[in-house]
Write a structure and sequence with these properties.
Elements (H helix, E strand, L loop, with lengths): L3 E5 L3 E6 L15 H12 L9 E2 L8 E7 L2 H12 L4 E9 L6 E11 L4 E5 L7 E13 L2 E8 L6 H8 L23 E9 L6 E5 L15
Parallel strand pairs: 4-10
Antiparallel strand pairs: 1-2, 2-4, 3-4, 5-9, 5-10, 6-7, 6-8, 8-9, 10-11
Length: about 220
C-alpha cells in the first residue's frame, strides 16, 4: 500500500486514503488504513510499543481522498468535539449519472440503515429508525450524460452521498450498490473526498487540505475543470 501524507505534526496526520482500502479492520481481514499507518509510524520513527492513532471520521471502502487521523488522545478528543459542533467541513467531488434537478441546492432526506445487509435506504421522516441527512451540492459541469458536482456534507450518515444522489434519480457513476447498472462490474465509484477544513486541536488555526481524484474514467472527462 502506498499512502500519500498531506500534512503531519505532533497531533495530526492527514493522508490521501487509497480506494478500495478499509479504514479499519473489517470482516474481509484485508489490510486496513488505520493499522497500516500505525505500523508505518512505528517503523519510520523507531517507536517502542504500540503507536496511538485515533480514528475521528470515516470514508466508505470504495472512496479515496483526504482523511484525518489523530496522533494523540488529546487531539482525538478535541477533533471529535469539533465534529459534534459541526466545525469540521468536508467537501467531495462526485460524478453522477444524468442531470441534477438544479445547478445548486441543499437537500434533506431521512435514511435508514439495514445493518444485516449494510444497505441504506431513503425512508419517510416518521420511520422509527430514520436519521436526518443533509448535504449541499453545486454543479461544476455536465458532459456525456454525466454531471460533475462539488458536495458539502452537513451530516455524516453512512453512505449518505450515495443514497441521497440515488434518491434524486442520479446515482453516482460506478455505484452499482445504489443504482448505477450501466457500467462494467468492478468499475470504481466516482466519489472522492476532495477537501477538508478542521480546527487544529492545539493551535488557533484552520487546517485546510485538498486531494485531487485520479485522472481516470470518468474523472478524465472533466479534466479541464
Amino acid at each position: 500500500m502506498k499512502v500519500a501524507i498531506l500534512y503531519e505534526d505532533n497531533h495530526l496526520l492527514v493522508v490521501e486514503k487509497p480506494v478500495n482500502v478499509p479504514v479499519q479492520e473489517d470482516s474481509s481481514k484485508d489490510l486496513d488504513l488505520l493499522n497500516y499507518l500505525k505500523d508505518y509510524i512505528k517503523v519510520r520513527d523507531n517507536k517502542p510499543g504500540n503507536v496511538y492513532m485515533g480514528l475521528v471520521h470515516r470514508l466508505d471502502r470504495p472512496v479515496g481522498g483526504v482523511m484525518v487521523f489523530a496522533k494523540t488522545s488529546k487531539a482525538a478528543s478535541r477533533l471529535s468535539n469539533s465534529i459534534r459542533k459541526h466545525e469540521l467541513n468536508r467537501f467531495y467531488l462526485v460524478v453522477a449519472m444524468g442531470k441534477l434537478p438544479k445547478n445548486s441546492d441543499t437537500i434533506t432526506h431521512y435514511l435508514w440503515k439495514n445493518r444485516k445487509t449494510n444497505q441504506v435506504y431513503s425512508v419517510e421522516k416518521n420511520h422509527p429508525d430514520a436519521k436526518k441527512a443533509e448535504l449541499s451540492y453545486e454543479v461544476l459541469n455536465h458532459k456525456e450524460g454525466m454531471t460533475l458536482s462539488r458536495v458539502e456534507l452537513h451530516t455524516g450518515r453512512s453512505h449518505q452521498i450515495r443514497v441521497q444522489f440515488q434518491a434524486m434519480g442520479t446515482p453516482l457513476y460506478g455505484d452499482q450498490k445504489y443504482g448505477d447498472k450501466r457500467v462494467k462490474p468492478h468499475t470504481q465509484i466516482a466519489l472522492w473526498a476532495n477537501e477538508i477544513e478542521i480546527p487544529h486541536p492545539t493551535l488557533k488555526e484552520i487546517v485546510h487540505l485538498t486531494s485531487r481524484p485520479p485522472q481516470s474514467e470518468p474523472w478524465d472527462i472533466f479534466k479541464d475543470i
